[in-house]
Design goal:
About 75% of the residues lie in helices and about 0% in strands. It is mostly helical and about 200 residues long.
């Protein structure tokens, strides 16, 4: 990439495929769902599946507005981050190396240091939380055993699965999650008036 001090570069996105420029139907949308399922599954984590449910158990609908704001912010970040990577073929970290004023790569290095310090404990904590959840739900094995198995399985699938298998697997996983959410809404019968009031920003005790 050229030095920004020498030339000005403009990022242009290519036109979408012809089938997406016509009237979008459900069949057309499903035909291109695979990559989106991979991106969705990579960005749906403990915050959506565990912490949101835990927050609801503790505070009812009082923090619903906070989860909505967080989800919107995360969606914007994930969309822009992944779109830039897919369209340009360049990781945003590479772009950050030349984007900010000062010594080349200082911001990228800062993010790397923060990630090295924070990610191991985050991944370990997430693995333990999911392991405990699976052990409690299935009444089989221990949380540590489930956590280790899930981490190893994810690594093996990522290493040997290939893109097509990954796409199919993630599509099934995301589809199952959406179905489970819909079923839970029907079974739990939420207080819809409470849901509406939960969108008003408040700070619970």
């Amino acid at each position: 990439m050229a030095n920004p001090a020498e030339t000005t570069q403009f990022l242009t996105y290519p036109e979408p495929p012809q089938q997406l420029r016509r009237r979008l139907t459900l069949v057309t949308a499903l035909s291109v769902l695979g990559p989106g399922a991979i991106v969705a599954s990579a960005n749906i984590g403990s915050g959506e599946m565990v912490f949101a449910a835990r927050g609801g158990a503790l505070f009812g609908y009082a923090l619903l507005w906070a989860f909505v704001v967080s989800a919107a912010a995360k969606a914007a970040l994930a969309y822009s981050f992944n779109r830039y990577t897919v369209v340009t073929g360049e990781h945003p970290m590479s772009r950050w190396a030349t984007l900010f004023r000062g010594p080349r790569g200082w911001f990228t290095l800062l993010m790397g240091v923060v990630s090295i310090a924070a990610v191991p404990s985050w991944v370990g904590g997430l693995g333990v939380a999911l392991g405990d959840l699976m052990a409690t739900t299935t009444a089989i094995g221990t949380g540590a055993l489930w956590a280790t198995g899930l981490i190893v399985l994810s690594g093996v699938l990522s290493w040997v699965g290939g893109y097509e298998r990954l796409e199919r697997a993630q599509t099934v996983i995301v589809g199952f999650m959406l179905i489970a959410i819909a079923v839970s809404v029907v079974v739990l019968r939420p207080d819809w008036l409470g849901v509406v009031t939960g969108f008003l920003p408040t700070v619970p005790e």
